[in-house]
Amino acid sequence: MSETATTATHLVTARSARFSAAAFNYGNIISLLAPFPLMIFWLGASMFVYCMNRHHPNEKVGHYTQQAAYRFYGVTGFFVAVAMFLPVNLNYYLIAWAVGAAILLPLTLRDLARIRRESWEDMEILAEPQE
């Protein structure tokens, strides 16, 4: 039985790569809008987005995803640790959210601007051979 190796390629468009690079940043912004329900959901969904995009065929997508994740997980991890020592008063938690937003929002917007200015090109990648 002889097997013929067929090499198929898959096109990753520049538009798709640019959106993938920005996806984690978009999630960060949306989670900052209403932190109590959305931040919790984004914490779980962000792990999926990170796994999908960190090892994208376009290395720039992985880089921007990793930078956005470092910021988000660093800020949220810090404030989880700080929240252990805050008094049970909503004002303290709102202040923590405002400080977190003041850290994340400018850096996230900066990255989105960089992603938009970056030159993105279509890529052809080899697809897995199918039997």
UniProtKB/TrEMBL annotation:
<keyword id="KW-0812">Transmembrane</keyword>
<keyword id="KW-1133">Transmembrane helix</keyword>
<keyword id="KW-0472">Membrane</keyword>
<feature type="transmembrane region" description="Helical">
    <location>
        <begin position="70"/>
        <end position="86"/>
    </location>
</feature>
<feature type="transmembrane region" description="Helical">
    <location>
        <begin position="29"/>
        <end position="50"/>
    </location>
</feature>
<feature type="transmembrane region" description="Helical">
    <location>
        <begin position="92"/>
        <end position="109"/>
    </location>
</feature>
<protein>
    <submittedName>
        <fullName>Heme/copper-type cytochrome/quinol oxidase, subunit 3</fullName>
    </submittedName>
</protein>
